[in-house]
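Batch manifest line 379
LIGAND: beta-D-galactopyranose
JOB: complex structure
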Amino acid sequence: MVKNTPPMGWNSWNTFGWDINEEIVLSTADTMVKEGLLDAGYEYLVIDDCWAEDERDRDGRLVPNREKFPHGMKYVADYIHSKGLKFGIYSSDGYLTCAGFPASYQYEFIDAETFASWGVDFLKYDNCFKPSSIPARLLTHRMSFALENCGRDILFSSCCWGTESVKEWIKETGAHMWRSTGDILDNWASIKQIHYLQMDYQPFNGQGCFNDMDMLVVGMNGQGNVGLGGCTLTEYRTHFSLWCMLNSPLMLGCDIRNMSDDVKKIITNKEIIAINQDPAGRQPMLLQGFRNGVHEQFFIWAKHLEGGDLAVGVFNLLDHDERVFVGYDALGLDHTSDRVLKFRDVWNDREWIYRDGIKTVVPAHDCYVWRCSLLPYEK
Ligand code: GAL
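JOB STATUS: finished
ARTIFACT:
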């Protein structure tokens, strides 16, 4: 097991897409350390698609694009490791990657060995251009087999977009994270859509094998490869809070070299990250928002944390402010429990103790997340 809690890091795709190169990767590594992102838990720096030459070499090995990565990938990996970070790369289970570069179908073992020889610590494995007669399940198993035997610990990040009932078989493969939807875009509609699609996935989400809701768009502000529209700061905070509550891996996607202080504050908030990284890795519970197969737009999620605390998040995806009351009954307590909860607001550094639940107004597109601790009821 390479990692028990949701993996955290940065991935090149959301902002840079085809235009990734050595200079961007090295300066991003510098920024991850300098700006405290590594300290906050973001340890993997992942180069997504578009890093390779169009042809393999004479021995069938993948070759990094000579213009984009003039010193090769071992050089990049060594630099990343020298900063205390881990290095991730991308391939696909088909003949080609989604952007049309050579991929790993029938090269699984040689590619795993190549990645290990470069010092790769993380593989994102896409699902493009595979023979339609071969199930993704089989090809995911095959790559997992290759990685387990390549002589290096490599975190396996599967990317089948929720197709082929992946949720049902992904744990067998040993993948540490698995994409549950299509690609995220940097706009509010996309964030809502990906969140709505998560309801059925929660029973399959847990320790060591996390449901990946896709790379974060926090801080993209409409710029870059998937920067279609952009979001407000409030929407980015709600997006980040949802990904944290639902145990998604936290892979940053903005150009962190140019992020604002407000964005940095969101992505480095230790208290919300601690809820995401809780060692128990328990499945979150949906307390409100999905009834009789129909999505509403106001969601209450809760998650039991190691040591006895409870995380509770209220998410207003409506376009107007909304009143909410989260009663103790809904959280599993009643008058016989003889306990109260202290609600700690993880975004606003405030705490309250209530006798029967919490009542508040959540502004449009906003959220509150509380870390709740149980205290004796004092008469
Ligand atoms: C998609 C994948 C994206 C990105 C892209 C690269 O299939 O979902 O996250 O990796 O391919 O071409």
